[in-house]
């Protein structure tokens, strides 16, 4: 399958067959890395990594994947360029496109990465925007497939705030690949209705279902995968913490939630997670609200059902597949 020259902005742009191809390629590249087989056939190429939001997994994944493929990288942070400030996105795209073979963007609105793609003249990859997180989806689907040996016919339940990049992207990925998707949260946090209807079209083609429910017991019953994310996204004001904690605590992933799923169910989280008081922010929130965890209990996070670190590792393998497949 030829994906050379393609942008990777949202899974809406890819067919189920193309997504599966990327998962297969990631699995192949992962196996080769484990065996010490070099895949540095992109030597002499360079990629630009634009980060308007900080990252551990995304930055590490792109840098290691590019290095493994034989490429050089340039990290461009908020203090390292005039991106969007003294130089327009359009002009930045045209400059970087003359110097680099590919550009990654992690930041805010989807329109930014779309504009980069419009003018760069080289493949542009979405490392995360407010609306979509497609590289995370490949890592998630690879992790699920590794565990269950399949994707089609499984039930994935996303708990928490399903209005933004993670809820949106999981719904798209599941609908395209034949997994039943459940957004389990209060109605105010349901995904956008227009996107839900778009995904129901995908689901009809793949034979899966999209469900929105506020009933935790019914929503998580018989689930194969329970998924959650932090309740307050990067860049949001501190004032929203109290509201989110109050409204989303009923949708915390607990031992009881996991017991309501299938016995072989797994827990996923894109990380970082507030499962204890081991972070500065976690301690501050704990002191303010008298809590010891947030979206998931430490008991679940540290359980055998938790596959979050397999999932984190797979970010690198799947990002490597995206770059390898799309670079000329």
User: What order do the helices and strands follow?
Assistant: HEHEHEHEHEHEHEHEHHEHHH
The DSSP helix count reads: 13
Spatial strand sequence of the major β-sheet: 7-6-5-8-9
What is the radius of gyration? 19 Å
CATH domain fold name of the largest domain: Rossmann fold
Shape: globular
Describe this structure in words.
The chain folds into two domains: 9-131 and 313-325, Rossmann fold (3-Layer(aba) Sandwich); 154-222 and 224-259 and 265-303, Aspartate/ornithine carbamoyltransferase (Rossmann fold), CATH 3.40.50.1370. The chain is globular, with a radius of gyration of 19 Å. The mean pLDDT is 96. The protein has helices at 16-34, 57-68, 89-99, 110-120, 134-148, 165-177, 193-206, 216-220, 240-248, 255-260, 280-289, 298-301, 308-326, and strands spanning 46-51, 72-76, 102-106, 124-128, 155-159, 180-184, 210-213, 225-228, 266-269. The two termini are 14 Å apart. The protein is an alpha/beta fold and 328 residues long. The longest helix is centred in the first third of the chain and has 19 residues, at 16-34. A five-stranded parallel β-sheet has the order 7-6-5-8-9. The chain is built from 13 helices and nine strands. Helix 7 links the parallel strand 6 (180-184) and strand 7. Belongs to the aspartate/ornithine carbamoyltransferase superfamily. OTCase family. One of its GO terms (molecular function) is ornithine carbamoyltransferase activity. Residues 6-146 form the Aspartate/ornithine carbamoyltransferase carbamoyl-P binding domain.
